[in-house]
# Entry
Amino acid sequence: MLLIAIIAVAQYAAAQVDYSQFVNPLIGSEGPIPGYAFGGGDIFVGGAVPFGVVKVGIDTYEDNITLSTLNGGYTPMGKVTALSMMHESGTGGYPKYGIIPQMPLTTIASPVNLLDNQTYSQSRVGNDTARVGYFKTQFQNGVIAELSAARHSGIMQYSFPAGEKHVLVDVSHYLPSQSGGYSDQIYIGGEIHLQTGGIYTGYGAYGGGWNEGAPFTVYFCGDFDTPPDQARTFRGRNTDPNPRYHTFSDGPVPQAILGNTSEYAGPLNDRLGALFTWTNSSLSQISSRVGISFISTDKACNFKNTEIPSYDLIATVSAAVQEWNQDVFSKVQVATGSSVNQTNLALLYSSLYFMHLMPSDRTGENPLWESTEPYFDDFYTLWDIFRNTVSLYHLLQPSYYEGMIRSLIDIWRYEGFMPDGRSGNYNGLVQGGSNADNVLADAYVKGLRGGINWTAGYEAMKKDAEVQPYNTYSFDDPSASVKEGRGALYDWIPLGYISVDKSTRAVSRTVEYALNDFALSQVAKGEAPEDVQKYLNRSAQWQNIWAHNLTSLNFTGFLAPRFADGTFNLTGYNPALCGGCEWKAISYEATPFEYSFVVPHDAESLIQFMGGPTAFESRLDYIMQPNTSQQNLGANGAGITTIMNIGNEPDFATPYLYNYLNKQWKSVQTSRSLANQYFHDANYGVPGNSDAGALNSWLIWQMLGIYPVVTQTVYLISSPWFEDLNMTINGNSTLRIMATTSGSQNSTSTTSASSFGQENFYVQSVKINGASWNKNWFDHEDIMVNGGTIEFDLGSSPVVWETGDVPPSPGHLVL
Ligand SMILES: *[C@@H]1O[C@H](CO)[C@@H](O)[C@H](O)[C@H]1NC(C)=O
Ligand SMILES: *[C@@H]1O[C@H](CO)[C@@H](O)[C@H](O)[C@H]1NC(C)=O
Ligand SMILES: *[C@@H]1O[C@H](CO)[C@@H](O)[C@H](O)[C@H]1NC(C)=O
Ligand SMILES: *[C@@H]1O[C@H](CO)[C@@H](O)[C@H](O)[C@H]1NC(C)=O
Ligand SMILES: *[C@@H]1O[C@H](CO)[C@@H](O)[C@H](O)[C@H]1NC(C)=O
Ligand SMILES: *[C@@H]1O[C@H](CO)[C@@H](O)[C@H](O)[C@H]1NC(C)=O
Ligand SMILES: *[C@@H]1O[C@H](CO)[C@@H](O)[C@H](O)[C@H]1NC(C)=O
Ligand SMILES: *[C@@H]1O[C@H](CO)[C@@H](O)[C@H](O)[C@H]1NC(C)=O
Ligand SMILES: *[C@@H]1O[C@H](CO)[C@@H](O)[C@H](O)[C@H]1NC(C)=O
Ligand SMILES: *[C@@H]1O[C@H](CO)[C@@H](O)[C@H](O)[C@H]1NC(C)=O
Ligand SMILES: *[C@@H]1O[C@H](CO)[C@@H](O)[C@H](O)[C@H]1NC(C)=O
Ligand SMILES: *[C@@H]1O[C@H](CO)[C@@H](O)[C@H](O)[C@H]1NC(C)=O
# Structure
């Protein structure tokens, strides 16, 4: 009987694998300096559901400002200032969010000042525990804080040591930029009302942050399992320096003034909040639920009550885990037994986790206009995720993805432009082109239709391509808009390139606008056939800044700065340098040397311009070699010394370009070596900011053994990391990727777990849907619509197995 019972449980367990156990939510939480987030993934750590509005986690403050990176709220050793409801994940630049907080306190006696987090913030003892949907930490004062999240609400559970018990709610709390500056967030004002039984409601308004956002308002509703014995409001003069708006004084932080039931502070006025106190000495644990809404406190209360019906923290954790397993992890199934490399399991499921934290699905929560369309915020940014993340959403999350695209189009309809970045209900910033165009085209060519109004979608793309956006005079780059659209259209349309004397980021934006226009040409095929040739021609305009005779490091032909008068400025020009790769540089987050490979729609011209396949290959070989980088990459460097920089998005597809030479084995070798070198199941596990999961999705494609070519129906074939993998695509089809090592297997190896993947990873042959396949790429139609199989035969020797056509260059055109 016992045996049967065990077997039954085992079978049940096999059918319902808890993949969440393989997720390490701390990958990316540290950078190269142990104990610091600085130079790391800037990830969010805490409780969240896939694409959830609420991401509950701790906010921290670093004693060493030089090493302060608070973007995700969490830092390994920073002092905790609060647990708050909203966070970004993976973003660089200035922090955004870290709002709607609570902070458990064991004393409010002097020197504690409710308006000064430095007087009550807490160091942590022991190690934090982070799992999917759950986080736990212990403060120096003995309080243990645990938390979890539902979609618009969170639950916090505090275990207090004997003594005083308070919970502080500081409506004026937000994640600061510790070194200050133009893009620091600001608290605008708010309101709080205390009701009997410890229920509190109100709102806070906040603005600024990396995307230079306008103010937005978040309503909240909180309560406690045990009503507090005393509940008081507080307020006090705001002494935060609010750049560009209101600097109150350089004086000290004043003391909070306690009040009774309500506080209101109009725009740029006082800070405010509430303090709850429990005096029952036999009580040691207090749980609290908080709901948030962008519409009203009623909705916030409703979310709290319906999403978290009890104060049972574990019930909320279980619900979150179940949602992650069902909607995310179980869509990629691999064997999980002990013979499988456990590190690879952690990398696979953690990467899936991180690519599903953003954007935030705020459907029904758009305060700006009334619409029945879905609404998403926290595209942070499309510049990062257009390259391969969205192509994975397309397969794994067709309904969320359709919602994202409808939302992008709805934003255009009501605000005039689709975003490239968007957060806090505000477009910004644009780092290169208008990359919503690429996202829409990628979905369109692969047949995503559903409820998307493609007439409108194409109109929105055309706005990007034709209408110069208003300049918002950003401090980052006052020359033209970085809020939305294409800031350098004034060059792009009349000149056919972006000039170095009239525009910033001339090289990188020329390359990106070209791909954006290719994207238009692809959607125009179905929506406006008369436009196809026009945008195809414009997609070749990168060629206008190609300096055919420029030689650097024995390689000839590079993108180069060109003046508006048509002449190139090659005086002292070194394509391996970018002058900081920032907003005002000639190229953004990569050097012209790197951008010279970033023309996914016309690899054929690129190969020709670089002197043919042999020269192209040796240039690719060169940029993969250590100690070739000449540009100081600063905090983004991740120890990378090759020109090829996997830590920044422009180079994501570059290691796969060998497929265009029918030397697929070199794509496998280089991409796998980058993955092994820079991606780890460790706190310092990604090479720089994870960028809303962009780095993580790059790794997933690498592990699948395929790589999508954005805005095309093409997938390049590389080499898979698992022997058998089933992926649920398009809702209910199955893509199965299998690998055997029956080819020229390394015979000296013994165990299959180590020989597979570690040594025998070169492709010997491929079958698709059972038939042998002689191309190193396939089309979306082949297996991504109704599902299908890819069978790899892998071995230890590099082999040129592909005899078919190289991948297509659908934008091939020589100006
Ligand atoms: C802060 O960190 C930097 C970089 O590690 C170090 O040089 C500096 O001495 C530190 N400052 C303090 C006050 O610890
Ligand atoms: C905490 O206090 C510091 C120093 O006054 C301030 O810069 C910061 O904005 C405050 N808030 C948080 C959440 O760190
Ligand atoms: C915390 O984790 C580290 C690294 O895993 C370990 O060495 C250390 O013993 C742990 N500390 C505690 C208090 O558990
Ligand atoms: C709070 O209530 C008490 C008792 O009703 C009253 O004496 C006091 O003035 C009130 N304080 C404020 C700030 O309203
Ligand atoms: C993939 O699906 C096939 C067909 O249902 C099944 O036989 C195989 O065991 C699955 N593989 C994994 C790793 O789940
Ligand atoms: C689709 O969008 C177009 C262009 O904005 C609009 O004219 C049309 O009414 C929309 N169609 C539907 C069904 O909403
Ligand atoms: C590049 O070199 C070729 C051959 O040396 C020459 O014909 C051509 O004029 C040069 N082009 C430019 C733009 O200097
Ligand atoms: C360029 O080529 C010359 C001649 O083949 C060689 O001597 C030199 O080392 C090469 N330079 C670089 C940077 O590869
Ligand atoms: C040409 O570029 C160099 C840097 O490579 C720069 O120093 C110089 O000012 C530029 N010339 C003009 C006329 O802008
Ligand atoms: C599969 O999913 C698609 C899209 O969601 C749907 O139209 C179709 O009916 C589904 N087919 C089955 C057999 O469930
Ligand atoms: C598991 O894979 C990782 C790379 O992801 C590798 O470093 C490690 O050696 C592998 N472990 C075994 C036992 O093969
Ligand atoms: C085969 O494996 C052995 C032991 O891991 C290794 O030393 C050898 O280089 C491998 N041979 C090839 C051709 O990969």
In short: The first helix runs from residue 2 to 15. Confidence is low (pLDDT under 50) at residues 1-14.
